[in-house]
C-alpha cells in the first residue's frame, strides 16, 4: 500500500517553511527559505509578496528532493503564516505595493480614526478587539490617506498566506482565524462585518470568501504544479493564522487546555466553545481554526526576544565566543530565585498585553553591587515569566474557566531552568508534547482533516501527538515569586510617565 503524506506551509516574517508529515504524525522532512523585511522609514515593516511565493517554491521542492516522496503521495496541503499583513492587488491580480506587515507601527492615527468612526466599545463588541497598529484595517485606512492613487486601484485584499494560496490555486480565499485578525470581521458570526466595512468605507467586494480551517478552498493548478513539483489537483485547505495553527499543532483545541508559546514573542492561547470578548480588549478575541470554536489570546512582544537581546548585548563584550543560550542558562542557574531583589521589565519593543503601549520601555530595577551577570541573566528569564503571568491573570479575569493543562512550546522551552521558572511563576504544571514544529504541523493536520485522513481535529491530534514531559511548580519558589511579582506589577504604572 502506498504511503501518504500531508504538507504544511508556513509563511512567516523571516522564512517560508515546508513541512511533510505522515499519518502517524512523524515529521518526514522540513525545509525553509529565508528572506528579509524592509524598513524604509522609522516604524515601517514591509515585504514584497513574491518573496513568500519564491520561498514556497524553494521549500516545497526541497522537501520533495530530500525524501523522494512522489507528488501523488501528498494528499493535501495546509497553509499558515504571519497574521494581519496587508496585501493589495489590482484587477489584473498584480501586487500594488509591498505588503505592510503585522509589526508595522505607522498607523496610530488611523487607529484613532477607526475608534472615532465606529466607537471603541462598539468596535470591540463586533470584532472582539480594539484598533491596534498591527491589524489590517488601519493599514487600509493609511493607504486611503497617504497613497490615494494606489488605493483607487485596489481590487483584492489578502493576507500573506492567502497570496500564496492564490499562486497555488488561482483562487481567492481566507480562513476565519486569520480573517478575525483584520479587524473587519464579526467575530461571533464568523463573517465579514457590513457595519464595520461601511463605517470605514472599505469595499466588501475586495475581500475573499471566508472558510473554516479544515475546508478545501481550491486545488493546485497545472501552472503551480510545474513550478512547485506538486501534483495538479492536490487539495489546498483553508488553514489558519500562525497562532491558531500553532495551537492545533500542540493539541490545544479544547476549553481548559491553554497553549503557551515561548518564541521571540510570548503567546498565551485559550480555546473557548463560545465567543468570549474582554470588554477592554486587553485580550484578543479571534475565531479558532477548529470549526465552531473561538479563542482568546494574549501577546507579549519580547519574550525569547528579551533573552536574545541580552545574549547579543553580552556577546559584544564577553570573552566567550560564541556565547550560547546554554551558557546563559548555566549562568542563570547560579543565581537564587528572585535574584536578590533584581527585576527585569521585558518591554524592549513596547508591549501589547496586558499594557497596549508601543512606548513602554524595558528596565533593570533594583541593582546593587551584590548583583552579578548571573543575577541579571536570571532576572531576564523571570521578567518574561512575570509578563506571561500577567496575561494568564487576564484570561482568568475575562471569565475563562478552569485551566486543566498548559501545553508549552517554542524555542525557550528547551531550557529546563526556564520551564521551571515559568511553572513556579504561573503556579501550574507545564507539559510538552512530541510535536515541535508548531504552526506548520498544525497546518498539515488541518489539511489531513480537510482531505478526510481523519474525521475531525480531535482524531487528528489524538493520532499524532502525546505528552513527553511534565514540569511541576515548586511550592517554596511559588510563594517567593508571588511576593516579588507584586513589585513587578507596580513598576509599569510607576515608570510610565518617564
Describe this structure as you would to a colleague.
The chain is α+β, with helices and mostly antiparallel strands. 37% of the residues lie in helices and 21% in strands. The strands form eight sheets. A seven-stranded mixed β-sheet has the order 18-19-17-16-22-23-24. Strands 3-2-1-5-15 form a five-stranded mixed β-sheet, with helices on both faces. A hairpin with a 3-residue loop joins β1 (5-11) and β2. The mean pLDDT is 95.
Question: How is this structure best summarized?
Answer:
By secondary structure, the chain is of the alpha+beta class.
What's the Cα radius of gyration?
22 Å
Shape: globular
The percent range for strand residues is 15-25%
CATH topology of the largest domain: Nucleotidyltransferase, domain 5
The level 1 CATH classification of the largest domain is Alpha Beta
Largest sheet: 7 strands, mixed
Spans of at least 5 consecutive residues whose pLDDT stays below 50 are: none
Coarse structural class: alpha+beta
Question: Total number of helical segments?
Answer: 17
Give the N-to-C terminal Cα separation: 68 Å
The largest beta-sheet arranges its strands as 18-19-17-16-22-23-24
Find the CATH superfamily of the largest domain.
ATPase, nucleotide binding domain
| Helix proportion range | 25-40%
CATH architecture of the largest domain: 2-Layer Sandwich
Tally of separate domains? 2
